[in-house]
Amino acid sequence: MCPDVEILSSFYDDELEDSQKQFVKTHVDSCPHCQKKMAELGLISDAINAEEEPDFKMAQVNTWNKIMDIIDREEQKHPKVNFWQRRFQISFPAAAALVAAFIVVLSLSVVSFYMGKHTTSSPATPELNMTDASDTLFNDDNIFDNSAIEFDIPAINTFIHAGEPLLIKEVDFMNRNGNK
Amino acid sequence: MKKLLFVFCFFVSPLMIFSQENPAPANETINVESADSQVYNMAIDLKIQDGTTAQVVSDHKAQHQTVTGRPVVLNINGGNFKAAVRFTLYQVSADNLMLLTQSTIAFISEGHRQMRSIAKSIPIKAGEKILFFPMGVLNDGEKSGYNCMLEMLVSKYQQQQPVSQE
Description:
The complex is a heterodimer of chains A (180) and B (166). Helices cover 61% and strands 4% of the residues of chain A. With 180 residues, chain A is mostly helical. In chain B, the strands form two sheets. Chain B has a four-stranded antiparallel β-sheet, with no helix packed on it. In chain B, strands 3-4-5-6 form a four-stranded antiparallel β-sheet, with no helix packed on it.
């Protein structure tokens, strides 16, 4: 039984293992049919080797030329238009909405402009850090302003906090103490 | 159309930007004559009193001229006690005033530092004597220590006539 063409082709290309190669060689030497096939394979191989390699570089250049031709043709069909000469198509409702929004923004800005002329902005209130407030009072001489009246009383360390501060007319205070 | 819109935006955009700014209000004129009648003289007498004997151990006096709405500020610096007090007069009617007292007191008691802020107001008339106790009033015999008292006398400011040199 003859080996198939694939095996003969592998044998021709010297791609078989040694054991298979020996077996096929023995068969081909004794089989005129396989010898004929081997001769055909030889002819095909010669024909392939005789052909010149295709010029890929040339093919690449030709392809690019074709692409550039297509681009040129498209540009000739749709010529470039300057930004200022370009025309936009906008639907009437969209244009109306755009104009309305613009008028609203414009009127708001005008109103706020004139409102600003008649209102005064309050200065930002400085934040008082309560944890440091006591330190400030003990270390700062003038907590409120520079024109404060200073009273340096004797350094008595036995001031008593008797309760809530009291603001009273002298007459009322005398009456209160007299009633006690 | 687009060119027109662009030109319009170009001229309107500065208006939109500057409309956010808040211009300073125009200077208001002050009626000097009416302001003159609202000038007051505030005589302040700070007394440190011994709580047990009711004896005044320290007495400090000061005078300050002010107008209604402008506070007179006192800073009191003691040993374990400091106070910042603002007295502000407000004109209620021709003869009636409102005295607003805002005080912030810091004191050290039993090793702990404490701070209290309070605002009090009282209707007064010019010539009335007002008392302010920033640390409260000591009750008789309850505590031994010192207390602080401010006496205030508010009167209409009268400009002194220049002395003629003859």
